[in-house]
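Researcher: Going back to the complex we discussed earlier. I've cleaned up the inputs and rechecked each line, so this should be the final set. Can you rerun the prediction on the complete assembly and write out the structure?
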Amino acid sequence: MSEQAKTLLLMAAVLAAVCIYAVIPQQIAVGEFFLKKMSITALKSNTKENANKIEQNKTITKTQRKKTNKIKHHTFLFIGDSMVEGLSRRFGDYAAENEHKLYTVIWYSSTTEKWAKTQTIEHFIKEYKPTYIILCLGSNELFINDLDIRQTYIEEITKKLHNYPYVWISPSVWNGETGIIDLIQKHVPKGSFYDSRPLKLERGADHYHPTWEASAEWMNKVADFMKSNKATYPLRLKTPKAHHKATNTKLLQPAFEGYKK
Amino acid sequence: MNIDFQHIVNSFSSFLFQPTKDWSFCTIPFMASFLIFFAIYIGLNKHKKVSKQAYVILFSLFFAYKANGALMLLLPLTTLSSWFFTQKMMRLRRGKPRKIGLFLVLSIELLPLLYYKYTNFTIDIFNSLLKTNFSPLQLILPVGISFYTFQAISYTIDVHKERFPKSTKLLDFTFYLTFFPLLIAGPITRAEVLIPQIHTPQTTNKALINKGLWLIICGLIKKAILADYLAQYNNWIFNDPLAYSGFENLMGVLGYTLQIYCDFAGYSDIAIGLAALMGYELSNNFSFPYQSLNLTEFWHRWHIALSSWFRDYVYIPLGGNRKGQLRTYINSFFTMIIAGLWHGASGMFLLWGILHGLGLIAHKFCVNIGLNKIPNNLLVKSTSWLITFSYISLVWIFFRAANIDTAFHILQNIANDFSVTDFYPFLMARPMWLFLLFVGLELLAIRKQDYEWLQEKFISSHWIVKFIVVLLTIQLAINFSQDSVQPFIYTYF
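Model: Rerun complete. Updated structure for the full complex:
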């Protein structure tokens, strides 16, 4: 066999190994070091089944929409990663001003994986009985490359939220991303997804989290969306005139493993 | 199992006909396409040379289309016009008529580059000088235009100077100018290097083919592991330097110094490696540039293809060092200004060129007044290296910064807000980044003979070892990959 043919076979074998590893469910780890999988999302387009499944999840009934409109005093459950800290601070003002109730759950460093794989959403839904859920998640997954796995987590979360009016606030990027936001957008109904990418927010000392002022601006934009006709579940939200101290906030540390069945 | 053939056909046709901005050597679609191309290429070894040549040209045009879309038409147009008019030029009488012919051919070759790259820059200058208000044109710079235009120019000049025969056939010239490993970001290869090899690729040269594989691995380590990982932090610094401390700014500058080397040298390694797999031997584009002890040496080791192009087609025609010291200084300075503007139509690239020009003048001046009489001991070498490396890193700030204010903010921050005590928190916050920076700097310091020893070891190793090394490299690249794919910096030029 010629040297060129041997080289070709070697390269083909490597590429095949990487592709096979990308599609098998197991992930190999050497101690605490995980061998990441190549993202194959870019290589495959949606199958019809997949597309139907997404559409099903995205379908919102008119009854649900009307029901949300009729409720005057909502019980909000605001959940997500550390970005919720700044956002909920401002949303607390909206809630107080509009006589809604707000429960906030901030799970620091959390990802779609943590919320999808545990019963944490179900736990807090049961505890607080919300009529509207706000979710801000994805900031800790801006630079991941296993998008195909994240897709299943996002699908799982949307399933958990399917029976509730909700808005998924996308992360606000500060230095690019690998595609998690497009993936969320693909699986969340148009009127339940707020795309934060166009926003330019001033960052705090850690360079990731927006400052309090910037977070408030961010929440104002989300609130504008939530009361507009672009939202699947439009709300009445008067702009707050004063700051109200946020209450009912639960903080979950990164080490928290989530509620199990 | 249900196979949706319609879906497969749709996906395949969309891959064939959709250009993509991410098309580059480090993407899986390219790697898969290359493997298919390479399998057929090997199969054609026994067939007529012309069919193999035509096959490579077709793949190169497909490669150009994927990177450029419809703008790829400029490539065959440049190829045809350059070959045709060079032939016409050589039919003119020697002397003035042929010189006029040369001027016209070079103008034709340069026209697309000037239009796409420098129109808006000229409009900006015009507006600021004459206080006019012409709006800039919506132009997209075709990928690789600076590289293939310079190859075409070098061919025309070499034929004009009769350093290269005028009898090159159109098919050979098309192969030369469209050869896909060189298309996006060089290295700018002379006709005398590639064209004689077209009909006799060394398809059975084991050492060359294995060296190709070795270079591809080196390129992936440099680009996909080091450059792309370092780029993230460097981008933060250069986007908003005032948000960071002096120490963090300094790390960003060091990081960029390493990033640009790894990015471009990585690209060159892969390009030369791919050509070597096909049996074509191209020259090295980098030779441990950050080990240089002065700026003149740096330019002999950095982007060798471009610097030798400027030496042969700009510096020497201007008189080089044959017309006295002052003219040597002026020629070096002018050449570096052109080199700066070649990188991009912006004042920052111009400034980068000016600073390198001044650096070269300073070095030549010091040599002329007796610098080379100083004993060449370790202390002198270390000091020379430190001065050279620091100056090169400093000048990269102007190359990377979006504007002069950003560049000065970085410099001010390093000068006024630098504290060694920031090292520990930095280490705690970004241990992997710092680790890769030191690994990268250590790799730059490797001795040439050690590198060649490693290369020889790889070439002579068993296929299983090679498989493990390639697999490990690809897996590390996946583990370290951050953004989808960072484009190669030099594809912008």
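Model: Worth noting: The first strand of chain A starts at residue 29 and ends at 30.
Researcher: Good, that matches what I expected from the previous run.
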